[in-house]
Each structure stands twice: as C-alpha cells, then as structure tokens.
Amino acid sequence: MRDETLPRIGSGVKPPAPPKPTLMEDAYRQLEEMIVTLEIAPGSVVSEAILSRSLNIGTTPIREALQRLAREHLVQILPRRGVVVTEVDVRQQLQVLEVRRELDRLIMRSAARRANAAERQAFTEMGDGMRKAVEADDVREFLRLDGAFNQRAAAAARNPIAAETVAALHAISRRFWFFHHRDLADMPQTAELHIQVMRAIAAGDENAAAQGAERLIDQLADLAKSTLPLG
C-alpha cells in the first residue's frame, strides 16, 4: 500500500546527487573500515595526531570521527590517555543483534513500501555487485556493499529515528563477522540472504523483506552463539 503521508519522488525521476562527504565523514569512513577489517586491531591504542598524519586529514575531523566511533562502541576515548579500539565481544554482538532484529525488520519492511523507482533499481544493482564480490572472494568489497545497503535501506524507509538508531549497531556486527568469517561464516550464504532482502525491497514485497531480515539475523546470531565457550 502506498504511504500517502510521506513525500515520494515520482517514478523515473532521478534523485539529486549526494553531497560531497565532509572531512569528518571521510575520516569516519576510513577509520570505520580500518577497525572493522582489523587493520587497526582490537585493543590498539591510537592517537589523533598519528591518525591525522596517516590519513592526511586534520585533527579536528579526526576527533569528530573518533567521537562518532565511540558512540558506535568501536573505540573508547580515555581522557589524557588516548583512544583504545574496543575488543570483539560475542555477548555484545548478541545484544546488538537482539536490537537489530526489531529495527531491521521495521526498516526493510518500510523500505519495500516507500522506496522510489530509482532506489529500487539501486537495490537490484547492489545485489548484482554483492554477488560479484562473492565470486571474486573480495571480503572488503562485500563489507562495503553491506554497509552501503544498510544505509540505503534506512534512507528508503523514510524513518530517520530508526535509521539513526540502527546506524550505530551495524559496524559492530560487520567487525564481528569479519573477525570470525574465515572459521565460521559462509560468505556466499550470508550474501545470498542479503540479496534476497534487496530483491524483496526492489519488488516492493514488504513481507518478504521483513522475513529476509529475520533470516539474516538468525544466521548472524547462530554464528555468534557458535563462538561462545562451552560449559
């Protein structure tokens, strides 16, 4: 059913190009990927000055990016002592997935209902890109597409409160998956679950989108539980 209470871009109308990322957004994107892919290892102590030189970005954008990463539980800022990258924590991952289950179901269902024609096409193309990443065994590209999918679905859902809340949780899940994926995760299966949700959104199938989100969270939860110590 069309939601007449929300503004929609007409069919076939190309949305405006997104604005150029700010220095803070650029710093955040690079640091988030470095932490998620363990290029900056859990437990590492980092400083604004070193990161500024490494990324060739000023200390103010770096500081703002680190504050955002702290809100997302990827770093801990210790006054006068530096910034520590948080450890990978299975219990935290399970807590994150408990919240994500409810929010992802809402967001994917809403995205299927409210996405415009250009967004639906983008979901189809993103699914094709994710399949190519799996075929090439390109884990980093898979994670980039996963992050982009989460952002695009949240935008298409037209619910900024849900989008802002869930944005702080996805990076934790991606890092946990990357940390364990060689031993536990089946990237083709994980990708296929993502693609099914993308296709459901593209088709405007609200129930399939919500059910696909449930299956994806089920798989991630099973992976997390398999890392818990026995006994």
Summarize, please:
By secondary structure, this protein is mainly alpha-helical.
Describe this structure in words.
This protein has two domains: 63 residues, Winged helix-like DNA-binding domain superfamily/Winged helix DNA-binding domain (Arc Repressor Mutant, subunit A); 136 residues, GntR ligand-binding domain-like (Four Helix Bundle (Hemerythrin (Met), subunit A), Up-down Bundle). Strand 2 and strand 3 form a beta hairpin. It is built from nine helices and three strands, in the order H-E-H-H-E-E-H-H-H-H-H-H. Strands 1-3-2 form a three-stranded antiparallel sheet. With 231 residues, it is mainly α. Helix 5 packs antiparallel against helix 8 and helix 6 runs parallel beside helix 8. The longest helix is centred in the middle third of the chain and has 25 residues.
What is the fold's blueprint, element by element?
Elements: H1 23-36, E1 45-46, H2 48-55, H3 59-71, E2 75-78, E3 82-85, H4 90-114, H5 117-135, H6 139-156, H7 160-180, H8 187-203, H9 206-225
Antiparallel strand pairs: 1-3, 2-3
Helix pairs in contact: 1-3, 2-3, 4-6, 4-7, 4-8, 4-9, 5-6, 5-8, 6-7, 6-8, 8-9
